[in-house]
Write a structure and sequence with these properties.
Low-confidence stretches: 1-6
Shape: elongated
Distance between the termini: 96 Å
Number of helices: 23
Length: about 350
């Protein structure tokens, strides 16, 4: 308060001084009245502006500072847009560009820059609010004219929200919002567009969605590439097995990933094609020991299963004891002793 009063010492005009004192006492209406009667009536205008009382501010500007009307209309429009009153906002953005009140030029470089900025802000506001009021063509045309990334994104998201997917995708691409425009182009099945922007896409979910779409269309090479980018290597294994009958490529991936689900898929593939030894090998690899033992029993591959188990780092003593019991029941005492030993049943061995 003391510092504020010190700032008032230099004011000589009584109504202006009284207006500031009323303002310090939070007597807003009295302050506006005093400013309006003072030698500095523009203070009343600035007070209304600061209080966001736009209708009063524009009424005062009409008589005190007509040159401020376009700028007040724009500021009012920005507040209306923020609160969701898009129709009123559009009207005020347009008022900000009215040729009869907007100066054609300004004195000085800085003032001219401010005027140019005002025009751009009004046009951008018209673009956004036109889209939100249903005039999509006008909004898109203005956005393209202004060529501003943020405006492209604002209008693109508004178009997307209103269901104009194609126009939204185009503007979001211009705004370099790669993930969102990619999602829309996938919906539109505009694959050439997707192919062009896919290197810029960061969302693993979108890479996976693109992969699924290409898989559904039978474009398996593209699907495999995108599943790789999405980190979904089990789906890559599935495509190699279900569509391309390429167990070799599938096995190369599994040797790196050691995926349980992928190894089960490969094991089923080998089992269906009569390659039971490979089926056993990949079940052991993925830790599905009991499933591998079941196939080995059924297909009389117990000895091979034992050899694979010995090479596995995931084998437990209990797994060897199952083998030992089996061989003991079959009277293969040497093999039974070997697996009792590996199962740490040294007395039985």
């Amino acid at each position: 308060m003391v510092y504020a009063l010190e700032d008032l010492v230099q004011i000589e005009e009584l109504n202006t001084l009284a207006g500031f004192c009323a303002l310090l006492l939070n007597k807003i209406d009295e302050a506006k009245t005093l400013f309006a009667k003072s030698g500095s009536p523009l203070e009343a205008l600035e007070l209304c502006r600061d209080l966001l009382q736009w209708e009063q501010a524009m009424a005062l500007a009409g008589s005190l500072a007509p040159d401020q009307l376009p700028f007040l209309a724009r500021e009012y429009a920005q507040q209306l847009e923020f609160t969701g009153n898009h129709a009123e906002a559009l009207m005020n953005f347009e008022r900000g560009l009215k040729s009869d009140i907007l100066p054609k030029s300004a004195d000085g470089v800085i003032q001219q820059e401010l005027l140019n900025q005002h025009v751009v802000l009004c046009k951008a506001g018209i673009a956004r609010t036109s889209v939100k009021c249903g005039d999509y063509r006008r909004g898109v045309q203005l956005a393209l004219e202004l060529d501003d990334k943020q405006l492209f994104n604002d209008c693109g998201e508004a178009l997307m929200a209103s269901g104009h997917i194609n126009e939204a995708a185009i503007l979001l691409e211009r705004g370099e919002n790669w993930d969102k425009c990619c999602e829309l182009f996938i919906q539109l099945k505009q694959w050439k567009k997707v192919d062009n922007i896919l290197p810029n896409v960061t969302s693993l979910k979108l890479h996976a969605a693109y992969a699924k779409a290409k898989e559904a269309e039978g474009h398996f090479a593209d699907a495999i590439n995108s599943y790789h980018l999405a980190g979904d290597l089990d789906s890559v294994v599935r495509i190699y097995l279900e569509y391309l009958s390429d167990p070799h490529s599938a096995s190369e991936i599994l040797l790196e990933t050691r995926s349980v689900e992928g190894s089960k898929m490969l094991s089923r593939y080998f089992e269906q094609h009569g390659d039971f030894e490979s089926a056993i090998q990949y079940l052991v690899l993925c830790g599905s020991i009991s499933d591998a033992f079941a196939i080995a029993q059924k297909q009389n591959k117990i000895r091979y299963y034992g050899e694979v188990l010995e090479q596995s780092s995931s084998a437990k003593p209990s797994d060897y004891l199952v083998l030992a019991t089996h061989f003991e029941s079959e009277k293969y005492t040497l093999l039974a002793g070997k697996y009792y030993f590996l199962g740490k049943e040294y007395s039985k061995a």
